[in-house]
Amino acid sequence: MSVTVQPRAIVAAEADVKGDVTIGSGTVVHPRARIHATSAPIVLGNNCIVEELATIDNEPMTVGDGNVFRVSSLVRAQTTGNCNVFEARCSVASNVHVSNFCVIGAGCVVESADNTLVHLDERSAIYETCEARQAACVPQ
């Protein structure tokens, strides 16, 4: 188990990074951010930002390029595409696939009540009530 940091990436000394984690070029991991690969690798793409108290964990997990994980976000999605924003205090469950250019609003929870796989289509914006979230989520 090792942490691999690509050139031009910045990982704060106070960040909590454990397990088999690869951090892409140009990615910034702020102090007190948490990236845990407990039993399988996590690959974090290029030019991502992981802010304070954000948590990324799953087994395994692939995160694309240009994603932003705001303060206190919790992301366990199996896959995350490119250029997504996870706003403060949002939560994305492990049975979710996030495509590209999606926004998960502050405090929103994206999960499946019956534990089926959920796929967020490109350019989905998740805000407001559970009904709005379910309308944007397409079970696979």
From TrEMBL:
GO terms for molecular function: dynein complex binding. This is Dynactin subunit 6. Belongs to the dynactin subunits 5/6 family. Dynactin subunit 6 subfamily. It comes from the Eukaryota. Part of the dynactin complex that activates the molecular motor dynein for ultra-processive transport along microtubules. One of its GO terms (cellular component) is dynactin complex. It is found in: Cytoplasm, Cytoskeleton. One of its GO terms (biological process) is mitotic spindle organization. InterPro entries: DCTN6, Trimer_LpxA-like_sf. Keywords: Cytoplasm, Cytoskeleton. It comes from Malassezia vespertilionis.
